[in-house]
Structure formats: structure tokens, C-alpha cells
Amino acid sequence: MKSLVNKNIKNSMRLSALLLLSSPLFFLQSCKEQALDVENQDQYTKVFMQSASNGAVPKSLAIKDEWTNIAFGAGYGGFSILSNPVTVNFEIDQEKVDQYNQQNNTNYELPPVESYKISSPSVIIQPGNAGSNNSNLEINPIKLGGTKTYIIPVSISDVQPSLPVKENLRTTFYLVNGVYESNPFTPISIEGWEIHDYSDDDYDGAGGRAKYAIDGTKEMIWLSTYRRVNGWRPPHPHYLTIDMNATHTLHGITLYGRTGANNAYLFPKNVLIQTSNDGNTWTDAGLFSIVASSEDTSATMYFEKSVSCRYYKVTVLSSAGNGDTTSIAELVAF
């Protein structure tokens, strides 16, 4: 009895399926595309920069005398497929720099004008496409003049024929800086150099006096005062001021610490470099954090921008051992 009931149910289902498939209404409804009814579709049509979607774009470039290309383009989004080509024009505008700094509490600048350019100010989105061809932001790192980070805002200026631009994707901000893979500069001769001023020093079997920081050897060293008087010795900062007795263009300083694993605690850790033309008024050239190493006691500190000066001042704000004392075996300016 049970199998008979199941058989009747199956026969009934087959009959219903045949009736449905033979109905013209079924075929009409199954083949017809569903229309997407969206009011004011034009408001969703936008042109934009794809590269602007993830915030500022950092670019660290090896400092060489060659042009580096950074590709960018434009995109199109909307319910309608483009039937005609669209030209998107770009610009680099100081006003965008000001807006970025105000919104992000920064003080970036445009790089030197000779260090960057746009290969083509326009790109084209072809009919039926959602993206354009590429243009390039071209940068020559050696013309940046140092390791300073600059900002370059590449922004959509207008679209022809006129289409709305998605404002939060109108501009790509490139944060560009140069990086030295090796030191390309020739050391400045120490002939004629003198110690103009210093915070303190001490006598020691390896010298200890301030003058040994510029004597041309790494064996004789400057050592801040380490002997205690009535239980006290001078803490950080300790400094040396060098008079080069001539004006030079400085790109940075190489500092050599005292050799030997037992002396690693003396190695400068946080260092401020300043420059001057009169020995009285000082301009910061850079604040650097460096790491001690018993194998290589040198630390090369590149300035963000090269500077013309007669005097330079090295101030050790803290040392590797977090104690009161520090030491410098030699200073090399370049």
C-alpha cells in the first residue's frame, strides 16, 4: 500500500513539471532579463584615481642620477557603459599640499621643481573600458638634494566631456624620499680644523681630550668626563663644535665610536647635528638614532638637505649604555 502511494505522488509531480514546461508564460519569464531599476543613475557615475584609495603612497628611491617612473591613471564607474572616449587631465597643485598638511598636522613641501615632472598631463578612458592608459610621475632622486621626505599631489583637474569626479579619490599623494645605498661623497679634508667649543672631556690612555675626535685616527678618542667629583659627573648631553675654517657643502657626518666590545656602552645612541656660519647661530641638520656595534663602530648620518656652513656641532643626547658618558673616536664630514 505504501509503495502505491509513493508511486502516485511521483506520477503527480511528473505531470506538474510537464504542464509547467509546456506553458508559454514559463518560457517568457525565464528568458527575460531582470531590469535594475535605480533612480538618478547619473549620480553614481564617477571618474576617480585608483591609486588614491589607500591613502598616501610612500616611495623611497635609491639616490641616483636617473629618472624613476611611477605609473598612475584614471578609472570610471557607473551604470552606463562609456560610448565615447573620456579625457582625464591631471595637475600638481600647491593648494593640495596645504590641504593635506592642515588635515594631517604635517609640514610636507613640494620637492625641488627640477626633480619631478608628469610625462603626460592627460590620459584617455576608451569606450567600453573602466580604466585609462597610464601616465607617469617621473622623479630624479639625486635632484631631491638629500634624504628629506617630500609630498607630490597628483590630482584630477578636469574631465572632458564633463563627468563628475569622486572627490575622495581625486588626488593621489606620493610621499617621496631618497635613500643612499652607499656614500657617494668625498670626505672633506680635516686640514685646518679646530675644536671651537665642547661640553667636557677627560684624560685617558686613549687620549680622552676633545681634539682627538678630529685628529685623523680612530685610536685616539674624545671621552666625556667620566671621573666623579664629590659623587657627581656631567650627564648627557655632551657636545663638540668643529670649526672647519672654510665654508663647505655638507651632506652628512660619519661618526666612529670607541672600538672594543667593552666600550660599546659609550657609543652615541641619539645624536643631534647642527650647522652654523658664525659659530653662534645654529640650524638643525638632523636628529639621528644610531646603533652600537663592536664589529663596526661607524654610523653615517645623511642630512635631509645639504647645507653650506663653516661650523658643525655634534651633540650626543644619549649613549648606548644609557649612562652618563660617551665617546667619539673620529668625525668625518662629507
Automatic annotation (TrEMBL):
InterPro entries: BT_3987-like_N (IPR013728), FA58C (IPR000421), Galactose-bd-like_sf (IPR008979)
Residues annotated as domain F5/8 type C: 182-334
Recorded superkingdom: Bacteria
Gene3D superfamilies linked: Galactose-binding domain-like, hypothetical protein (bacova_03559)
Pfam (any one): F5_F8_type_C
SUPFAM superfamilies: Galactose-binding domain-like
Protein name, per record: DUF1735 domain-containing protein
